C-alpha cells in the first residue's frame, strides 16, 4: 500500500512538471512573438514581412485584414490591397498593404502611431525627431502641404510631414 501511495505521488509531480514545462513553452512562444512585434523595417518591410513576398504570406504573418480588394485605377495599373484596423476620418487605415498582379507586396503604408520604425520614428513624431534619427541620410523635397523625406531610391522609405509632424510612413519598392 505504501509503495502505491508513493507511485501516485510521483505521478502527480510528473503531471505538475509537465504542466510547468507547457507553461514555460507557452511563455517562450509569447515572448518570441512580442520580440517580432509589428515594427517598420526601413527600406525592407513591416514586421516579419519583407517587400516582394506574396500577400498571402503577409496575411499569414500579420493576420486577417479588416478590408481587402482589388483596385483597377491605382496609377494606371491593377493592385490588390489589404487594410488593417479602422479607417480614420481621411479614409486611411492604420496599416495598408499593396501588391501587384502577381500578388507580390510592393508597398506598406503606415498611418498610425502604433507602428514605429526600428529607430523609433512613428506617425506623430516631430520633423526634428525625424531629422535627428536619420540625419544626412534623409533626402528632402519641400511641398505646399507636405514635406517629403525619404531614404533609399527604388526600394525605400518615405516620411510625409505636415505642420511639423510625421503623418505617414511608406515602405516601398517601385
What does it look like?
With 174 residues, the protein is of the alpha+beta class. Helix content is 29%, strand content 34%. The chain is built from three helices and eleven strands; from the N terminus they run αβββαββββαββββ. It has helices spanning 2-35, 55-62, 127-134, and strands at 40-41, 45-46, 49-50, 67-74, 77-84, 95-99, 105-110, 139-141, 147-152, 155-162, 165-173. The strands form two sheets. Strands 4-5-6-7-11-10-9-8 form an eight-stranded antiparallel β-sheet. A three-stranded antiparallel β-sheet has the order 1-2-3. Strand 10 and strand 11 (165-173) form a beta hairpin. It is globular and about 35 Å long.
SSE map:
Blueprint lengths: L1 H34 L4 E2 L3 E2 L2 E2 L4 H8 L4 E8 L2 E8 L10 E5 L5 E6 L16 H8 L4 E3 L5 E6 L2 E8 L2 E9 L1
Antiparallel strand pairs: 1-2, 2-3, 4-5, 5-6, 6-7, 7-11, 8-9, 9-10, 10-11
Order of SSEs? HEEEHEEEEHEEEE
Extended strand count: 11
Order of strands, widest sheet: 4-5-6-7-11-10-9-8
Largest sheet, if any? 8 strands, antiparallel
**What's the end-to-end separation, in Å?**
77 Å
Binned, the helix content reads 25-40%
Q: Provide the residue-averaged pLDDT.
A: 85
Count of helical stretches: 3
Portion of residues in beta strands equals 25-35%
What is the 3D form? globular
| Poorly predicted regions | 17-36
Content-based structural category: alpha+beta
Q: Measured on Cα atoms, how large is the radius of gyration?
A: 23 Å
Amino acid at each position: 500500500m505504501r509503495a502505491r501511495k508513493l507511485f501516485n505521488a510521483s505521478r502527480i509531480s510528473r503531471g505538475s512538471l509537465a504542466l510547468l514545462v507547457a507553461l514555460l513553452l507557452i511563455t517562450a512562444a509569447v515572448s518570441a512573438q512580442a520580440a517580432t512585434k509589428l515594427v517598420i523595417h526601413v527600406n525592407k518591410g513591416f514586421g516579419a514581412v519583407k517587400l516582394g513576398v506574396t500577400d498571402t504570406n503577409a496575411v499569414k504573418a500579420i493576420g486577417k485584414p479588416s478590408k481587402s480588394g482589388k483596385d483597377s485605377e491605382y496609377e494606371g495599373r491593377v493592385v490588390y490591397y489589404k487594410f488593417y484596423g479602422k479607417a480614420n476620418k481621411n479614409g486611411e487605415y492604420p496599416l495598408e498593404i499593396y501588391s501587384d498582379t502577381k500578388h507580390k507586396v510592393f508597398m506598406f503604408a503606415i498611418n498610425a502611431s502604433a507602428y514605429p520604425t526600428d529607430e523609433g520614428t512613428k506617425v506623430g513624431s516631430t520633423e526634428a525627431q525625424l531629422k535627428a534619427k536619420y540625419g544626412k541620410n534623409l533626402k528632402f523635397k519641400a511641398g505646399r502641404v507636405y514635406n517629403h523625406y525619404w531614404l533609399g531610391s527604388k526600394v525605400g522609405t518615405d516620411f510625409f510631414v505636415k505642420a511639423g509632424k510625421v503623418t505617414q510612413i511608406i515602405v516601398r519598392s517601385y
